[in-house]
Each structure stands twice: as C-alpha cells, then as structure tokens.
Amino acid sequence: MNTNLATKPFSFDTVPSILCQQGAAGELGAILSEKFPGVRRVLIVTDPGFLATGLVDSPVASLTSAKFEVTVFAEVVADPPEAVVLRAAAAAREQQVELVIGLGGGSSMDVAKLIAILVASDQPLQKMYGIGNVTGKRLPLVQIPTTAGTGSEVTPISIVTTGATTKMGVVSPRLYADLAILDATLTTGLPPHVTAATGIDAMVHAIEAYTTRHKKNPLSDALARQALGLIATNLRVACTDGTNLAAREAMLLGAMLAGQAFANAPCAAVHALAYPIGGIFHVPHGLSNSLVLPHVLRFNAPDACGLYAELADLIVPGVNGSPESRCNALIASMEQLAIEVGIATRLRDVGIGESDLDRLADDAMLQTRLLGNNPRAVSRDDARRIYAAAM
Length: 391
Description:
Elements: E1 18-20, H1 28-35, E2 41-45, H2 48-52, H3 57-65, E3 69-73, H4 82-94, E4 99-104, H5 106-120, E5 130-131, E6 141-145, E7 157-161, E8 167-171, E9 179-182, H6 192-211, H7 218-240, H8 245-264, H9 269-281, H10 285-315, H11 323-340, H12 357-364, H13 368-371, H14 380-390
Parallel strand pairs: 1-9, 2-3, 2-4, 4-6, 5-8, 6-9
Antiparallel strand pairs: 7-8
Helix pairs in contact: 1-3, 4-5, 6-7, 6-8, 6-10, 7-8, 9-10, 9-12, 10-11, 10-14, 12-14
C-alpha cells in the first residue's frame, strides 16, 4: 500500500451525524424532535414502489405522534427528470415545509437534496449543475436509504435527467445531509436482483474511489477498503436470505462507507460508461455499472494494476502471486460474482445491440467530470471498444 499518500495535502468532508440502528425509522419522531427542535412541517420524499410496501407508515406514524405535520411526496422515478424535482419543490413550498426527509433509494435521496435547496433559495435548478455552483441556503435534510448501493445519504451529489437521455450532476458541499439514518429493517424486502445490483454499485464506488486519479487520500482509501470487505463478505448472504438483518446492516454500512469514500475521491470511467446505458435504455444504475465494470477494469489494468492488486485480497481472500495475477483475480471474481447473484452480465441481455455502441460511446464522452478521474485516459474509440467487449 502506498504510504506516501499521508504526506500529501487533502481534505475530507462528510455528513455531521450518522445513526445506525435497527428500527430507527419507527422512532423518527423522537429522533428528529431532539435533533431539530422547533421544526414542525416535514416532507418525506419517496417513490411509488417503496410507498406500496407499507414501510413508510411507521415513520409517518412516529412523526405524527411527535406532533410533526407530515407531507409525503411519492412521485420519484428512477433517473429522476427535472420535472419531478420541480414538482416536488413546488409541493414543498405549498406546504411550507421546514425539513426534508429522503426515504428510498438514490433517486429519492437525490431529489430530497435538491428540494431542500430549491425551497430555501431563489436559485434556479439550471444554475446549479456542475461542481460548486449551488449558492442558496438549504432546509434541514435527513437521508434514510432503503437500498444498500448508492451511498447518496452521505454524498454531496445529485444526478438529474436533463433531456430525453442525458444526465447532469449537481455537486456541492451544501448537499450533504444533516443526518443519515441506517435502518436495516427497511431493506429486508429488497428483491435479490435489486440487492445484487445495488451491492455491486457500492463495490464500484469503493474500487473507483481507491483508484481515482484525483483526490485519492488515506481516509477515502480506508473507507473504500472497509466498504469493499463488508460488501464482498455479505452480498451473497443478503441475496439468498433477504431477512438476515446482520447481512443487511453490513450491506448498508458498506454502501455508506463507499459513499463517503467516493464523495471525497470521485468516481471515474465505470460510472461514465454506465450513465448512457441507464439514460438511453433505462437500465437500473447499479446494473449499468456492473455490466461495464470488468471491461473497464481490464482497460485500466496497465495503469492501475498495483492498486487493483491491493484490493484483491478483500474480494478473493488468500489470493497471492504477482500484482498482475492478483489484479486478474479481482477482475475474474467480480465477473463471477455477477453470475452468482443472478444479474445480467452482457449488454445484449438488456436489449442493447451492436448498432447502439456508437451512440453509447458518444454519450459516454460527455461525462467529462467522471472521465477526468480515471487512472487511464479514455478516448472515444476506447469507450466503444469497452462497450463492444461487454456485448
């Protein structure tokens, strides 16, 4: 491991308060009363699927019994478009909301971040896109993930679909929540394929944070390694026995740690190539990442072999040999993991054909924020070859 990193200047930011407690969602009223005295009107941001599970009822009841006035916005969709964000913000303004709660997967939490800004300031959403462009104030913000993947509860990033297929990011320290709550009981009903895809998404966050070209640092490295170990150890159990609370909690913790890592040491080409797959073909984000992951790892290996070798033992315990052999073991293990947990492994499995590869490559090259972090420079031809390898 490269100990010289400790001598380089770095900064590290994360949310100021984290609560990891099974059943915490059912005690939300007491928790928020203590944390945010004087706040009365809250908005819960979620999606129709999670609302249908009935798991929103307990936190709503807890808040209501603690004298909060609760509004639920349950219109979030995957890859949320601007229209949904603006509609949610309008509903929050109408209800004079004082605090926003993201309760769901990454999309719900991303929308919650932007609502908290849009309601408290006059800055238009279009002026926020990019890095460090948020200037307005923010309402108090609480994030409660219901999947173990995105790490959005501890990141300063919100991804919005801005056109028919294009996505843009809002990246600002103002998007860090005031409180993140990890409650494993909210994740026991996740189907195996969702558990698998979101779990591999979190592993990608850890791998990319550890190998990023910019802002890699000792804290993000430690978090990425811990995250990768937790998820690699518990993902198969969580997929086969979804009610195993210990495995579910380990997955939530791993996803959060990976979120803290990539919030400070940002993601790279895996995400850059995954975004067009989700944007054009509406493939879930975690699965999009998984589909291109081993092929990006192979592409990066000439420049990142040593770092991949350092991570190999976390995924393939006891692996030894040269850095090249350990790097190859890491890549092979990630490919095998996708097969074992039963998710699609080829682009053709999700309806993508050879004729789509040029469009995917063109769109991937628009992701300059991510591509600039990759350990190896990616050209348009490189991107197309990676997609072709994933076919």
